[in-house]
Amino acid sequence: MTQTTTVLVIGGGGTGVGTARDLALRGVDVTLVERGGLASGTSGSSHGLLHSGARYAESDPEGAVECIDENETLRDIAGHCINDTGGLFVQLEQDDPDYFEEKLDACHEHGIDAELIDGDEARDRVPDLSEGVERAMVVPDAAIYPSRLTAANAESAANHGATIHTNAPVTDITVSDGRIERVDIGGETNTTIEPEYVVNATGAWADKIGAMAGVDFEMKPTKGVMISVEYEGLEPVLNRCREPSDGDIIIPHEGEAVLGTTSIEVDDPDDYPKEEWEVERMFEECGAMVPGIESHEIRRKWWACRPLYAPDESNRSDSGTGDERGISRDFTLLDHADDGVENFASVVGGKLTTYRMMAEATADHVAAELGVAASSTTATEQLPGAADPAELDRLVAKYSEPQPTDAGVVADLSGSTAAGD
Ligand SMILES: Cc1cc2nc3c(=O)[nH]c(=O)nc-3n(C[C@H](O)[C@H](O)[C@H](O)COP(=O)(O)OP(=O)(O)OC[C@H]3O[C@@H](n4cnc5c(N)ncnc54)[C@H](O)[C@@H]3O)c2cc1C
């Protein structure tokens, strides 16, 4: 069977569903295919931090401003896909006070609310916080639930005419006369799609889809571990205020605290070692902020791969910045007309926090290619179900199941509801 569509979006993480939604709201006919359930790639296995931008404030002002802008936008449109926990950047006695001052100043300069509090006040807010915390800054970090977020984006796209196929891996791409002619889909969907335009939003797997279309570019994925432990009553996100390193963030997820993470290059995002030393490192490092956290019972541990684009990463190394984690995970839109395939683009890199902005930029590009004049409305239109967590959880079951990041928050209704087609 062969189907036609104006735009085929490949990949059902934040970037793909965001792009499908943006185009559908502009009146474009869209089909999205995802090889597993929505958010089953990196998005649903991320740390689940809605960045305030404070993490990047002194090292990457542009990335920091993108984060605070999107943080505010998502608070308006995404409702219960977010939990407004607030966040603290804590300075331990062994941390550089100048780094703290630099971050605080940079936050103020770039429009990120950052309030200085002393160690005692920080411990009033988080009683288990180390006696070694000398001071902290309060920032508008929050927790984000990617299973709900991707499902709500997909539902919005579907409500505007998009077709969403899960369990639909792209298995082959046929290019003819410099254009993608056909895309073969396996799995339960098992069909061929003839698209006018193709957006590759497959994150850490993007170079594999590129290769199917004869386009050569390289991703440079890095893995990170997350460990969820039982923890009642942690309110704010805890960030260690030092140059970004292993195990410097703890995120509250309703009855759990999620410790993370590492950043280690891997060759294949589907097959890489998941090492016990990474887990131990999380307990050591996070234990410096919250002593005794290692004695809390582990609920889940999981790994994910960052969708980093190799040329961006090389440029960062060239700039001599050393550890790359302090730098914003910028995104790149690759127009493969430059590689001889006219109707094909890949969107790589970025952060879950900035998925909507990446999607808007991608949809702007596609709209220009197709001659569509309508502009993006995703920054102001509420996501379906945003006000109702039960409805969001129903949507998760429709398109997927709760993913590791938010499995402790999102009700698992996947056994009781038909999966998305
Ligand atoms: C350890 C770690 C922690 C992170 N923590 C945070 C955080 O706290 N906050 C934040 O903002 N960002 C965080 N990030 C970054 C963020 O998670 C990612 O940048 C973002 O989720 C990527 O979304 P995406 O849609 O581009 O990719 P993905 O979510 O990976 O989506 C790509 C999709 O493509 C699908 N796919 C692959 N091949 C095919 C195929 N052949 N056919 C069909 N579909 C296919 C995959 O199954 C996948 O679902 C973290 C990343 C990592 C690795």
UniProtKB/TrEMBL annotation:
Its EC number is 1.1.5.3. Keywords: FAD, Flavoprotein, Oxidoreductase. GO terms for biological process: glycerol-3-phosphate metabolic process. Residues 7-318 form the FAD dependent oxidoreductase domain. One of its GO terms (molecular function) is glycerol-3-phosphate dehydrogenase (quinone) activity. GO terms for cellular component: glycerol-3-phosphate dehydrogenase (FAD) complex. Its cofactor is FAD. Residues 401-421 are annotated as: Disordered. It catalyses: a quinone + sn-glycerol 3-phosphate = dihydroxyacetone phosphate + a quinol. The keyword Nucleotide-binding does not apply. Transmembrane segments: none annotated. SUPFAM superfamilies: FAD-linked reductases, C-terminal domain, FAD/NAD(P)-binding domain. Belongs to the FAD-dependent glycerol-3-phosphate dehydrogenase family. This is Glycerol-3-phosphate dehydrogenase. It comes from Halonotius aquaticus.
